[in-house]
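Supplementary Methods, section 5.1.

A reviewer requested that the exact input to the structure prediction be made available. We therefore reproduce it here, unchanged from the version used in the analyses.
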Amino acid sequence: MQQVAIGIDLGGTQVRAALVDEQGRILARLAEPTAALAGPDRVLTQICGLADRLLAASRTASVVGVGVSAPGPLDTVTGVATDIPTLSGFVDFPLKAELQKRFAFPVDLENDAIAAAIGEWQFGIGKGFDNLVYVTVSTGIGGGVISDGRVVRGRKGMAAHVGHMSVVPNGDLCPCGNRGCFEAYGSGPAFARRAQTRAMESRETTLGSDGSVIDSRSVFAAARNGDRLANQLVDEEAEILGRGFTSLIHIFSPDIIVMGGGLSHEFDRLQPGIQAYISQWAMPAFKDVRVMLAALDQNSGLVGAAALAFLAGKVASIDHL
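The structure derived from this sequence is encoded token-by-token as follows.
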């Protein structure tokens, strides 16, 4: 009988579930909008409902466990959601224990960005590497680290909140409450805010000229059409990301940096500028570290969550021996 894991990716917008085999292949997948304001019981009911529907359609599979990827902060040692800002009621909530009550299979819980790092390491662009840093650049900036062939989790399993390292002293306010964070400058919303401000100051740009909303997507579109300001903004974004990635390279000495998240869809445009910054400013021994595009795209966290169950099974087998 084929062994599979159930991967759950819990987000503020969507709850996604998938059956994933030992090669990281998604065999079946379902999703629905998250009942983000309805409280934990309703959200957990959604998770279990999706899993039940997947299993009903795949009766020949043997389930090794359930892996759950969720936004942080999460204390994955105790299985407690400390405070998930996008989900109402998830403050000091025993997420793992409550899920375990509802599932007959072992449940593992992981921060979403660490889960995505695991997915890329086990089944994506990072396969075969012992050292990598995964960075998701989207609504926020998050990360996960694999070092010496092991997942770096740190105290409470909260390692690699890379978006909240300071890059500008007393800089812009970050959603975390600090100032000058990498996320406050390099995230998608930060990029869009910068574009909106600069477009208001310029008479020589098509950005917003027709009254349309200026967001990351419209800036990249304008850049492709030759808009000078848009191209300047994209180059600046690449430099900001390059600065942050260079710091991560110096700290963790990875074989590669893996970039995922919404802005990674413009990787081809951003990568040359990011790599140029690293080549110029990284210490000599680190200049050759490459920035690479996540291979699993939006499924990095989903597949990584499922990988948790397979990894846990392997550890259990070793401990038993």
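DSSP finds nine helices and 13 strands in the chain. These observations are discussed further in the main text.
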